[in-house]
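Here we describe the complex-level prediction in full. Unlike the single-chain runs in Section 2.1, the two entities below were treated as one system.
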Amino acid sequence: MDEDIIEKLIEQFRTLPGVGYKTAQRYAFSIIEGKRERAERFSAAILEAKEKIGFCKICGNFTDKEICPICQNRNRKVVCVVKEPKDILAMEKVKTYDGVYHVLFGTISPLERRGPEDLKIKELLKRVSEDGVEEVIMATNPDVEGDATALYIARLLSPLGVKVTRLAQGVSMGSELEYADEITLSKAMDGRQEIK
Amino acid sequence: MDEDIIEKLIEQFRTLPGVGYKTAQRYAFSIIEGKRERAERFSAAILEAKEKIGFCKICGNFTDKEICPICQNRNRKVVCVVKEPKDILAMEKVKTYDGVYHVLFGTISPLERRGPEDLKIKELLKRVSEDGVEEVIMATNPDVEGDATALYIARLLSPLGVKVTRLAQGVSMGSELEYADEITLSKAMDGRQEIK
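The structure predicted for the assembly as a whole is:
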């Protein structure tokens, strides 16, 4: 067993999120035991993605163009603000949404010493004032940092006269009330809607 | 979001054992969001491992040489027979073992249509008769296929006059009797040893 070369590969797999030594080892062995073409495809896909995929100049989405297809083709009057590019992928499951996005690249976090100046907030304000945006939907995560960031940005936006909304918070579809935490339940109670 | 390039990378990560779409996506995003140097190192490590690591001509272990360091430096009179190269890594935790290994590259499995002729059994018999092997330790997995394969090989070896042993089976260290299955318990009972 040549420890160095295999260990080097295991080390690389360990840099993936949530991967410990044992899992990284399994991944490495699967590469070594697999076909050469598979290793070549794998290796090339990593390089290609890193080389060609960058961030959209307008919204911060992943793209291999200067401006992503969403910014090019959709309604720029509605902007959905998310924490990270991958949140766009999640939001895109809402097939009826026709607006565009804005990635903050983080949330305000005093613990991690990340202030408003570290996020793409200036860029958002500029878009709102220059593009005639009518609604900004705050879709940061439903946690303390996400809420604080949403509130902070909403206050900055209010002088611009734009409508600012936040994703509804409540009990998740398919979950069981028995296991819902008290904050989720009280948010669901506060946001209750009349059945018509 | 350029679906094609990112999807291609996600697809590659999905070929890893036990990785579903969501996990593959997380891995892919971590590559795209990470540094260029990391992607380059990762990509190179995959290619290097696949290009340089092969199987030892004697025992079947992973190695970047013709003959692995274990076969070169250790006692060839004792051979530990395992199913796969990665089992050698597990067995090497037994620091007191000074013998060599022999990888079968599988176990006899009628269900998966794998017979004795698909395994490196001929090669094992050749080693045993030519190298003056004194003991063969069957370290195939403690399951039905592993047991059957061990028994099959032991019968082939018996005319050669070599001692054939099998890893002891019983309750695992640190486990709880309460949760042990009945086969494990009866094997532990059968193999019980006197406390001296």
